[in-house]
Amino acid sequence: MQPPIARFYRVIEQAPLPQRADRAAGGTLPARAAQYCDAVTQASAFGWWIYPPMALTLLWDGEQIHWTWSGHDTWLPLEAAQCPGLRQHFDAAAPEHLRGTAPPMLTALPEPGLVQVWTGLFARTAPGWSLLLRAPANLPQAPGYQAYEGLLEADRWFGPLFTNLRLTRTGVPVRLRPDQPFLQAQPLPRAAYAEPTLAAMATTGRLEEFAAQDWADYETAVAGPALRGDRTTGQYAIAARKRRRAECPFAPA
Fold first, then answer.
1. Whose CB has fewer CB within 10 Å in the chain, the N or C terminal residue?
2. Most distant pair of Cα atoms in the chain: their distance
C-alpha cells in the first residue's frame, strides 16, 4: 500500500476530520456539470475538505473583531483565543516541557478585518510534497469572509494548519459551521511551483503562428465533430475517464 501523501493530526477533539473533496461539490453543481464537465468535477474533487474546528461566530465592527461560540451568550473582543477546554487537554497529553504551548484557535491580525483561524489540525506531507490551502473549489461559500490561499511545505514544518480570513462585512455576524468545509487542502509536488517550472512558459500571440499540429489537434477536439455532426455531450469527459481507467483501473468512472 502506498504511504500517505498527507497525514492530518487532530488536536482539538471536536474538530471534524478532513474528508475527501466531492466531485459534485457537495451536490451544489448543476446536474449537467456534474455529469458532463470533467474539468469541473476533477477540480472539485482535487484534495480534501477542511472544516472549522467548532461552531463559532465572528463580528467585525470596522475596528475591533469580536467572537463567540455555540452555547456562549456574550461577545468577546478578539486578540488571541484558544478553543475552550483545549489547554487542559493539551497539557495532559504533551510532554512536560511543552505544556502551556497549545496554539490559539483565533488570532486578530494587525490589518483591519483579518483573522487567523486554526483548523484544530496539524499536518505532515511526504517528502517533496506541499499543501495548497484555498477556498473549496466550486463550492458556494458562506457570505461575509474570504479565505486567503497559502502553500504550506508540510514535509519541512510540522505545526498548526491554519488560514487567514478577510472579513468583508461590518456589523454582521459571520458564522463558521463545523459541518460546512471552509478550506480545501490540495497536494502539490514542490516541483510544480518551483521557479524552473513556472519559468518554462511560452506564448503564441497570433493565429497565423499556429503550427500544423495545432490545427490538427483543434480539428480533433472541436471542429471535426462539429463539422461531421457527430458531437456528443460530454465528449471530453468520456475521453478523459477512459484515459484514467486505462492508466489506473481504480480511477473513478
1. N
2. 74
